Amino acid sequence: MAAQAPIVVQERLSLPSIGVGQEFINFKSITMESDKYICVREAGAQNQVVIVDMASPMTPARRQITADSAIMCPDKKVIALKATTPGVAGDALQCFNLDTKTKLKAYQMPESVEFWKWTSPTQLGLVTTTSVYHWDITQCWRWLRASAVVAADPTPSMLVVEQQRLAAAVLATAAGSLQRQQQQQQQQQQQQQQPQQQQQQWATAVDAPPVKVFDRTPNLAGAQIISYRVSADGKWCVLIGITPGLPERPALARGVMQLYSVEQAKSQPLEAHAAAFSSVKFTGRDLPSNVISFAQKTLKDGQVLSKLHVIELGNAPGGAVKRNAELFFPAEFADDFPVSLQISERFGLVYVVTKLGLLFVYDLETATAVYRNRISPDPIFLASASDTTGGIFAVNRRGQVLLATVNEATMVPFVSQQLNNLDLALAMARRGNLPGAEGLVAQQFERQFSVGQYKEAAEVAAESPQGILRTKEVVERLKSVPPTPGQKPPILVYLGVLLQRGKLNALESAELARLVLAQNKRELLTNWWNEGKLEASEELGDLVSAAGDKDMALKIFQLSGASGKVIVSLAEKGDMGALMAYTGQSGTSLNYMQLLQQLMMNNPNGAVSLAKMVAKQTPPPVGCETNTIADLFLQRNMVREATAFLLDALADPVTVAGSQHTSLVLYGTVHVR
């Protein structure tokens, strides 16, 4: 039965096995900002930070660092550190590049930071008791020489010294010294003129403070903040906290949420334990929409309500899409609650993880329940999306790092057979390029094609999972449909959908080229080629060459391995050096006479160019003497080309000299008249 499950769970790592003590396996000591790194802060006689690269988890890096919190950047080896200094208000914040051993940015925050998180690879979200700030580690950098700042591994002593220096810098900035500002501007202008290699050795200054984004709503007062997220376009923010349960149900922690619109500068307080943003293209919509998904388990009028909500944000035409579904908790999980919600845009799934180890899986677009199972007998306190696999990582109190992923072979059959939801199975197969829906997709295509729904049939074929309908037969059927006034031909609909989704195969690329070149829109084809949308083939190269773009055709021939066409193209260009280099690299033998005859049929000017180059070789290739080449032209009644060739040959005293020169003059006089 487990083999047929649509979700596979495996232990990716055991933290105790790499030396992490049980006392450090908790929410305050471990952070996981993405599927790339886990960061463990070990406090004790020797304060250190353990950095686990999930690409090689059994060889963690340990660094002697004293800090209250450490979080790794989602996509690069950059660490952010937070520490307090006795006698100094607030927290000292620093970012280091561990590869280059340079400090990227630092700031003395006047308030204590209760929670922080990377909201993007270049921005940190900082949550204080009253407000939320954003700190861009790349914005407003002021460059100083490396010798003027600390640029080494972060150490305990460095943190103290740097914190004191930062406090002084903040006071100096507050004083507003005009002279200091002028000196900084002059220094900045001078350093901008330094060579690039010198700039790479510099580090950033500390004068770019975090920017306040919004104040916390009253419902979050006193809450333990457990999550903060920002939408991909930066227009929406969501802050999540938990508080003790109500007196009538103290074991069920309350989830409190604040949704904030950056554009409208407005907040909405809600009840939820976990939330995430995503981009969803709803059926019937031309463009993807910003969506927030959140999971809640609330007590209302003595009843426990557990729901997943999927809500479209912004002013959508026709009103925002709103979906919701029940999160069904078994009786033994009555006081369990969500601790994390992650989105897989690859598969279009919502993963909801609970404290007691339940995993709920829902379809994102429809909020349809797909699967539920307990993935851990131990409490889970941390989870992160796995963009690489389209699944999630979860860390439990035992120190297991669990990876839950889609079972690609069984997901679609499970949805179609166990859930008896054929529409959802088809949608998931198309969206995630999953197997198991071949028969369903083919039936849908035939049904729509037979009733004249050609546009819909073309879309089904273009989006077919595993490309099962992207065949020559289907292309020919779509081409055969008579055009309907006011509508795109089905073949154009088919190719248009594919262009939006990714790259066309060789058959489709050639078909698109025919359609576009027939309308004299070669520039469109060039743009798609430059964007990597077309697959190289000899057929595509022939079409482009016939349209007059010899350079692009040459590139296509080279990529498709059409060596014969490459040789012809180089010969047509008259680039003898490139021709010789190509034949040498590819091991292709060069038959000049055969090549000349081929060019004489299709490209007379190219034949003349090649003939001139061959004639200039000393000695000429065997069988390629000047009069022999001239005969080839004259045998085909190519008098003008023969004349051009002979005049060039006669004009070169090095190539043609003495008696041979006289013979050619006589030859030309007799034969070229």
Automatic annotation (TrEMBL):
InterPro entries assigned to the protein according to its UniProt record, in alphabetical order: ARM-type_fold, Clathrin_H-chain_linker_core, Clathrin_H-chain_N, Clathrin_H-chain_propeller_rpt
CC annotations in GO: chloroplast; clathrin coat of coated pit; clathrin coat of trans-Golgi network vesicle; clathrin complex; plasmodesma
Single GO BP term: receptor-mediated endocytosis
Taxonomic lineage: Eukaryota, Viridiplantae, Chlorophyta, core chlorophytes, Chlorophyceae
Annotated PANTHER family: CLATHRIN HEAVY CHAIN, CLATHRIN HEAVY CHAIN RELATED
Domain Clathrin heavy chain linker core motif: 408-430
One function term, GO molecular function aspect: clathrin light chain binding
Name by which UniProt lists this protein: Clathrin, heavy polypeptide
